[in-house]
Design brief:
The protein has 218 residues and is α/β, with parallel strands linked by helices. The protein has a single domain, classed as Rossmann fold (3-Layer(aba) Sandwich), CATH 3.40.50. It has 7 helices and 8 strands, in the order E-H-E-E-E-H-E-H-E-H-E-H-H-H-E. Helix 1 packs parallel to helix 4. The longest helix has 30 residues.
């Protein structure tokens, strides 16, 4: 990536955290933005470890949705990301299989930040796309409700997490499985992003016309 400067913005969980941090990041006018992280699958087509890219991202409970940039979508698909119709951004973690199945009519993937990232990018006139790796699938409960162990900045509070585990030691095997799945998904996402950014950096005339020299990865 000789000509591609990558700026990584760690937003933490939640849309408001993402919007606040990106407002600052977009002051320097990056050439494009990739909203990335982990997500839950809402359809049988989304399997654990898959890297997926969404044609559109919507905010749950509204008709508001935002499209991914066409060139970024094409390149992501060419690099091996599974193209899905819609990401659904929600305010709270979808913990149970029942919750995910109820969201299945709204989209293919559930997560907590991409709509706000895409909205901030649109406001700054920055081409953007949402790419996620699937850490948990449609028919799978998470090992615990993580809402109570996330601070206002969207980070895991380890002391509270350990306290929750101590109160429910039976959750440990499920937490370990989820941790392994999340690690596998994170590695798949990292490998994809390495390939993706190299492809965008050397994307010939299309990349040159978009001046894709700098990426903001979220």
């Amino acid at each position: 990536m000789a000509n591609c400067d990558v700026r990584v913005v760690l937003t933490g969980m939640g849309g408001q955290n993402a919007a606040l941090r990106l407002h600052r990041a977009f002051r320097e006018a990056p050439d494009f933005c990739i909203s990335s992280g982990l997500a839950g699958g809402l359809t049988e087509a989304c399997r654990a470890g898959d890297v997926v890219v969404g044609r559109r991202v919507s905010w749950r409970g509204t008709t508001s949705s935002l499209p991914g940039d066409a060139q970024l979508l094409r390149t992501a698909s060419a690099c091996g990301a599974k193209l899905v119709n819609r990401f659904v951004t929600v305010e709270k973690i979808a913990v149970t299989a029942a919750q995910k199945q109820s969201l299945g009519s709204s989209g293919d993937v559930v997560e907590m930040e991409s709509y706000f990232v895409m909205r901030a990018a649109a406001g700054a006139k920055v081409p953007a796309v949402a790419v996620r790796a699937i850490s948990d699938v449609r028919d799978e409960d998470l090992p615990m409700d993580f809402d109570g162990v996330v601070d206002a900045q969207g980070s895991i509070k380890m002391r509270k997490l350990l306290g929750r585990v101590a109160q429910s030691p039976r959750s440990i095997p499920a937490l370990m499985r989820f941790g392994l799945q999340s690690r596998k998904a994170s590695r798949a996402l990292a490998d994809f992003l390495d390939l993706y950014l190299n492809a965008l950096d050397g994307d010939g005339e299309d990349a040159a016309s978009l001046a894709l020299r700098e990426a903001t990865a979220v």
